[in-house]
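Example (one chain per record):
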Amino acid sequence: MSNRLSTERSPYLLQHAENPVDWRPWGPEVFEEAKRTDKPVLLSIGYSTCHWCHVMGRETFRDRETAETLNREFVCIKVDREERPDVDGVYMAACQALTGSGGWPLTILMTPEQEPFWAGTYLPPRGRNGGLGLLELADEVSRLWRSDRRRLLELGQRSGAGDAAMAKIAADLSEESEAALEDQVSRVEPALVLVCSILVGLILLSVMLPLMNIMSAIG
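Predicted structure:
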């Protein structure tokens, strides 16, 4: 049975269209749904040639028990970093603020207001060798979301992950504004050259005509 990625164009997203996880593509309506249902958001970012993205897709997102927990407790979003480098950049900055490192697959847990409070990379479905599994993480986060949300959100606030994400957004907007300004200048410059050339020509003509009249009268 296909999920909501089945109509997407991205090869990476289509690779996950048959997962039992009810993935949604990135969009404002997804966060509206999270607000309406009062659920945290699980954001997973990867790309089609990423080895560990494929491993996590095969081991974790095809696991029925993990998928059932994610579908019940979270609103789940899948993003192709090659299709949305802007989204990837924002949440990679948040991951680095939370953990000091980053990579793909990028796993982010955040509020419906897009405030990240947990970040990581590859996660198996269940913990092994002392490491955390996505199923255990999801169970604990969903418990705290219901019983002690303030404590959960303080994790992100103490790390400054939200500030890092906002700083990345501001930097991207600044770069876009500078690029737009440069584009406008590049378009204006030829017009200015033309106008200046016409003005110079008119000035020269206004000077030369009286001189020509004087020369004609003398001759």
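Caption: The two ends are 99 Å apart (CA to CA).
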